[in-house]
Amino acid sequence: MTTTSDVGTGAVTAAGTEPVTGGAAAGGTAPAVAEPRTLTYSEAVREAMAQAMTADESVFLFGEDVGTYGGAFGVSGDLVHRFGTERVRDTPISELGIVGAAVGAGLAGMRPIVEIQFSDFTAQAMDQIANQAAKIHFMLGGAATVPMVLRAPGGSGTGAAAQHSQSLEAWFAHVPGLKVVMPSTAADAKGLLLSAIDDPNPVIVLEHKLLYKQSGPVPEDPVRVPLGETAVRRTGADVTIVATGVMVPRALEAAERLATDGVSAAVLDPRTLRPLDDQTIVDSVAATGRALLVQEAPRTGGFMSEIAARIVESPAFGRLQAPVSRLCGLDVPIPYAPQLEQAAVPQVDDIVAKAGELVRRW
Amino acid sequence: MTLTADPGLAKHALTTMWTIRRFEEAVDDMFARGLMHGTMHLSIGQEAVPTGACMALSEGDYITSTHRGHGHCIAKGAKLDAMMAELLAKETGYCRGRGGSMHIADVATGNLGANGIVAGGVPIAAGAGLAVRMRGGSQVVVSFFGDGAVNEGAWHEGVNLAAIWDLPVVFVCENNRYGMSMSVDRAFNVDTLAERARGYGIPGVTVDGNDPQAVHDVVTDAVQRARSGGGPSFVEALTYRWKGHSKSDKNLYRTREEIESWRERDPIAAFESAVTGAAAATAPSVPPALSESDVEECRILARDRVREAIRTASAAPDADAATLTDAVYAPAGAPIAGGTRG
């Protein structure tokens, strides 16, 4: 496997993300430092919230069942016992009201974190997200800010069917004024959330249900991962795979298998869709000459269409050896039956097949 | 406080109402003459509600406003030249030409913003109240909205959150009888909108929204209750907009007679009669708060303020497209409305 020299590998170290497969940490003699501590993605989110609440009195969490219940997916866990019911505040089932209250609290000096149980339910709150939170700073000519974070799990794979399984990142990324974050590792789940909480703008953090139990090394300190830095998860010479959310580990698994077939695939994870670090993507595609863009969301109007456009508008266009390709969810609502659900979104086999085809055919 | 007995308060109330009216008459005129762009929603006829309500507030208290929000801004103490500049698409406008009539805010005076979405400000007001509570502050939030908002989901969710958390919010409904063309008689199956308060376990009262004293009295009670930890209240102020919903309105849904009957109940004329003693059937036992010349002074002051605002705003530079995208996102470390945190 050859490596490209001009991809933004610096971002990997700077951001403190998980080491790429086969990295230097895997072998050799044990250094004199402790093993990197491992947390689940869910624990990493909780730790970020706890550290932010400890450091800043104005940070608080509210949402449906985030208190004693511990959150629908257990993400808030014991936070109510550590920070009390004022700062880890249960709400009625009122998504529009909750997000509106976060906007108001942000305007009046707090830094609220709202948890929406399933990202699908943001449809209930969309006025406050898209018309209020996103636009207030601009509409007021910069005279006010809305510092708030909206966390919501998205994605399929749990048998929860069409109203509890969507990948809605393109909705949010289409609205100027919102920032959109999609962590794919435990370290990023913590580091990106800390940056989101610091940010003076409304930030939508789309967690993935299938990643909550995945473990990875996470720094104990509140290390920020900046918004707007694409992570190079794996370097490669033949094709650049760009993936988001749960498609990142699938792309990495696919890249492993491709390597045994003699195909060298780079895997890039934008991590934040707004702001988007497209330069790292463009640089990688310029080096490999091929781009495979993988998303769980339906194809039409999806965010990978935006990335495709950025690539073909860039100087990388002249280096392309193959059409820029997308591998997306089907244009269907997510179904219930497990075999149907799997068929609706890209799997590792699909990525292997598509990437292999791109390299062999072109 | 008795607005009609204290000369200082009477002058303030009267000047505020006249300023709102003159401001809106001026923008109506400029729009008709093609000097103003876009659209706007005028509150002529409703001036007593923001005037009476905002006089119950203290410095630092918040309001959320509506698409029909010029009166709220003025009553809360906004600068007329910056308002006028915004309407005239100037760089010196409150929103640097980004917002226009429907999005004027004045964070310095606690005005968290007008809102183009009906009931959009209601849950925001609850959230501002939550912030006050969590920061240990003593401010109160007044959320203005119209009758149309009371049938929006956001209204119910926002009022309920304020109610269950005892937040310091006063919900002030300007019931001007129409949500665009839909009359309250057709849009509600309750006799008064204030009845809705009972469903949330908070006090609700209906008042004459054309009487600044009546509005002031009930809002003062509600503000005191909110400030002392007693939770939110709902005030329904009955009033009427003389002008159409917006610039496209042909008034097809109401009669000339109905409009005329409400014009005869002009809140400003009624207040002038009250403060000069002209309304009293018999000779008043106390001297009237204001003389005819005091009243004339208030009118002139309002007129001159609006004229000066037009002059200042007209001379200001136009909003500059070169900086169009610079306020989409706040830079790191941007100041926030609540001032220093924690």
Automatic annotation (TrEMBL), chain A:
Query: Which residue intervals define the domain Transketolase-like pyrimidine-binding in the entry?
Result: 39-214
Region (Disordered): which ranges? 1-31
User: Which spans does this entry mark as compositional bias, Low complexity?
Assistant: 7-31
Q: Which UniProt keywords apply?
A: Oxidoreductase, Thiamine pyrophosphate
CDD domains in alphabetical order: TPP_PYR_E1-PDHc-beta_like (cd07036)
Q: Which SUPFAM superfamilies match?
A: Thiamin diphosphate-binding fold (THDP-binding), TK C-terminal domain-like
Under which name does UniProt file this protein? Answer: Alpha-ketoacid dehydrogenase subunit beta
Which source organism?
A: Prauserella alba
TrEMBL record, chain B:
- The yes or no answer to whether the keyword Oxidoreductase is present is yes
Oxidoreductase: present as a keyword of the record?
yes
Q: Name one Pfam family in it.
A: E1_dh
Domain Dehydrogenase E1 component stretches: 16-317
Tell me the keywords, alphabetical order.
Oxidoreductase, Thiamine pyrophosphate
* CC cofactor: thiamine diphosphate
Q: What is the official name of this protein in its record?
A: Dehydrogenase E1 component domain-containing protein
